[in-house]
Design goal:
- The protein is α+β, with helices and mostly antiparallel strands.
- It has a single domain, classed as Jelly Rolls (Sandwich), CATH 2.60.120.
- The chain is 26% helix and 28% strand.
- The protein has four helices and eleven strands, in the order αβαββαββββββββα.
- The protein has helices at residues 6-19, 30-45, 83-100, 202-208; strands spanning 21-24, 50-51, 70-73, 106-114, 120-123, 133-140, 153-157, 160-164, 171-175, 181-183, 190-198.
- The strands form two sheets. Strands 1-9-6-11-4-3-2 form a seven-stranded antiparallel β-sheet, with helices on one face. A four-stranded antiparallel β-sheet has the order 5-10-7-8, with no helix packed on it.
- Strand 7 (153-157) and strand 8 (160-164) form a beta hairpin.
- Helix 1 (6-19) crosses helix 3 (83-100).
- The structure holds N-oxalylglycine (OGA) and nickel (II) ion.
């Protein structure tokens, strides 16, 4: 199943290759948005989220002065009610491979929850020990987000700073190694589906160092 027509994808990947990032509104279909958001709220209620760390799995630091979010890594086999969401992710991966010649072989995604008062300081999405994250992809799940709620994504481009509001169903993609960014302090609970397109399965990438 295709969620978006090819001509739209071509426009988006064009922007991504020219500007290193792209912002796509209404990316997640409304009913799929509700499904993913409800899944997230349910997992939160069941206490299935972990405090996020910094760095790769073997070398993880948990420091809330750098990042304060909680994550739930989604798994295609375990989380079968998210199969449509995995469909969108697969479509993005296939399109990037086809139009950007990226030879992506997999992806890793988590649901993220930033409690009120938390943030993620400026960083890039590649670890020193593991550099197989090619494209970062974030889909926001913040119902009725408004100015003052905070939690904007700030992207650093040369001497410019771009502020992106984390509004529901919006998708942001950027080149993981090229784009420094931060999550500004949020004043309300902030929700997203966030992940990375990989050019090797993460386990293998890590072993090969
Ligand atoms: C990240 C990140 C940005 C966002 O998880 O690495 O930078 O807007 N997320 O949630
Ligand atoms: Ni990041």
């Amino acid at each position: 199943m295709n969620f978006h027509p090819e001509e739209k994808w071509i426009d988006w990947v064009d922007q991504l290759s020219m500007n290193d990032f792209v912002v796509i509104d209404d990316f997640l279909p409304a009913q799929l948005y509700t499904q993913v958001r409800n899944f997230l709220l349910h997992k939160l209620e069941e206490d299935e989220f972990d405090r996020a760390g910094i760095g790769s799995s073997a070398n993880k630091l948990k420091d809330t002065s750098i990042r304060g979010d909680f994550t739930y890594w989604i798994d295609k086999d375990r989380d079968q009610s998210l199969s449509e969401a995995f469909g969108v992710i697969e479509e993005a991966k296939d399109v990037l491979n086809r139009f950007c010649f990226l030879s992506l072989s997999g992806f890793e995604f988590h649901l993220a929850y930033y409690p009120e008062g938390t943030f993620y300081k400026r960083h890039v999405d590649q670890f020193k020990e593991r550099s197989n994250r090619m494209i970062s992809m974030i889909i926001y799940l913040n119902e009725g987000w408004k100015k003052g709620d905070g939690g904007e994504l700030k992207i650093f481009k040369e001497d410019e700073e771009l502020i992106i509001d984390p509004i529901a169903r919006r998708c942001v993609m950027f080149k993981s190694a090229e784009v420094p960014h931060e999550v500004m302090q949020t004043n309300v609970g902030r929700y997203s589906l966030t992940g990375w397109m990989l050019y090797q399965p993460s386990g293998v990438g890590f072993v090969l160092g």
